Amino acid sequence: MSTIEDKNKAIVREAFDTLFNKRDYAAAERFWSPEYIQHSASALTRMK
Fold it and tell me: Each residue of 13-42: pLDDT tens digit?
């Protein structure tokens, strides 16, 4: 049986795989809100 934590982990893995490995930025937009705030000083704040 799959727990909610397992489902959440699968979503996060898919999101990071889509963005960082596949570099499919258009598909990755479905995982991040346009209002997402990046807290890394070396990264852009918005997806746009």
Answer: 999 999 999 999 999 999 988 888 888 888
Residue 12, amino acid: V
Identify whether the C-beta of residue 18 lies closer than 8 Å to the C-beta of residue 24.
yes
Residue 2 has which token pair?
């799959």
Q: Which two tokens stand for residue 46?
A: 């918005």
Minimal CA–CA distance to 26: which of 47, 10, 43, 45? 47
Question: Residue 6 and residue 19: Cα distance in Å, rounded?
Answer: 20
Query: What does pTM read for this prediction?
Result: 0.71
Q: Comparing C-alpha atoms, which of 14, 6, 45, 41 is closest to residue 30?
A: 14
